């Protein structure tokens, strides 16, 4: 060790120089410890409660938006999407049967029976009672072909019977099933039964061409036959010559599929 003043050698750890008397301890500077540079990266702080709440709110809002888009797409595609059964009956040229053309009415299956078309009588129906006043319209309606309405004569037995629709089919949500049929120049009697096998209920209509167009565009329409939502329904109506459409409607349902069994005939 050397004295910083006279540069003479002095013993190690000496406080004063033995040659010049200079205080050596005051000139010594204690070495400073140099920290090595850290090569490790700082760890990220954990998720805060505010960040977690914001993420949950964003996820819920995204799910609600997706559901709204799906429901909107179903409702907008209803007029363009439908199942159509192209069952068209040929118009035969057979003997003419006198008939009365009905006036299109708006009604459902729960309306007054006296407003519904009279059933077509059969030749083998029994004679009327001697006291017709005791037979109410509803009793005649329930008996169907067993009684004739008052002041009416029996109609001839139909010579031809053609199926309008005799099958089981599915009607998807927001859609409808359409069957086109032609009534011959002599007119025809449309009779049959339909049932919603699954899906609880279905609506049925018989429309002409104008009524079908208004129905497809969700406007008010005239129908020759209409039922409310029902599990089982019957059709019994006379139609004048022309083109008609038997429509089974499920446009009021968003998610429910309907399986329908129908057996509808045209007699003339």
Give a verbal description of the structure.
The chain is α+β, with helices and mostly antiparallel strands. Helix content is 16%, strand content 25%. It has helices spanning 49-77, 137-143, 209-216, and strands at residues 83-85, 161-171, 176-183, 188-198, 203-207, 225-226, 232-239, 242-249, 258-267. It has a 5-stranded mixed sheet with strand order 1-3-8-5-6. It has a 4-stranded antiparallel sheet with strand order 2-9-4-7, with no helix packed on it. It is rod-shaped.
Spatial strand order of the main sheet: 1-3-8-5-6
The helix content is: 10-25%
Main beta sheet = 5 strands, mixed
Structural class: alpha+beta
Tell me briefly what this model is:
This protein is α+β, with helices and mostly antiparallel strands and 268 residues long.
State the main characteristics:
268 residues, alpha+beta, single chain, 9 strands, 4-stranded antiparallel β-sheet
Topology at a glance:
Layout: H1 49-77, E1 83-85, H2 137-143, E2 161-171, E3 176-183, E4 188-198, E5 203-207, H3 209-216, E6 225-226, E7 232-239, E8 242-249, E9 258-267
Parallel strand pairs: 1-3
Antiparallel strand pairs: 2-9, 3-8, 4-7, 4-9, 5-6, 5-8
């Amino acid at each position: 060790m050397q004295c910083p003043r006279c540069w003479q050698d002095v013993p190690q750890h000496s406080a004063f120089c033995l040659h010049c008397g200079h205080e050596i301890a005051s000139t010594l500077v204690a070495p400073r410890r140099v920290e090595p540079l850290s090569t490790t990266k700082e760890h990220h702080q954990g998720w805060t409660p505010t960040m977690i709440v914001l993420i949950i709110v964003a996820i819920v809002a995204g799910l609600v938006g997706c559901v709204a888009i799906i429901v909107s797409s179903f409702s907008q595609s209803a007029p363009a999407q439908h199942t159509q059964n192209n069952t068209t009956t040929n118009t035969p040229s057979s003997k003419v049967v006198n008939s009365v053309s009905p006036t299109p009415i708006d009604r459902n299956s729960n309306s007054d029976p006296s407003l519904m078309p009279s059933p077509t009588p059969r030749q083998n129906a029994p004679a009327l009672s001697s006291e017709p006043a005791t037979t109410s319209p509803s009793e005649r309606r329930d008996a169907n072909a067993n009684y004739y309405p008052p002041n009416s004569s029996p109609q001839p037995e139909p010579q031809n019977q053609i199926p309008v629709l005799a099958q089981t089919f599915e009607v998807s949500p927001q859609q409808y099933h359409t069957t086109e049929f032609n009534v011959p120049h002599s007119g025809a009697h449309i009779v049959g039964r339909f049932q919603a096998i699954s899906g609880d209920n279905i609506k049925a209509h018989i429309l002409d061409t104008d009524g079908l167009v208004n129905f497809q565009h969700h406007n008010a329409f005239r129908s020759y036959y209409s039922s409310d939502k029902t599990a089982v329904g019957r059709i019994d109506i006379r139609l004048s010559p022309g083109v008609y459409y038997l429509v089974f409607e499920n446009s009021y349902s968003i998610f429910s599929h309907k399986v329908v069994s129908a057996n509808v005939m045209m007699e003339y």
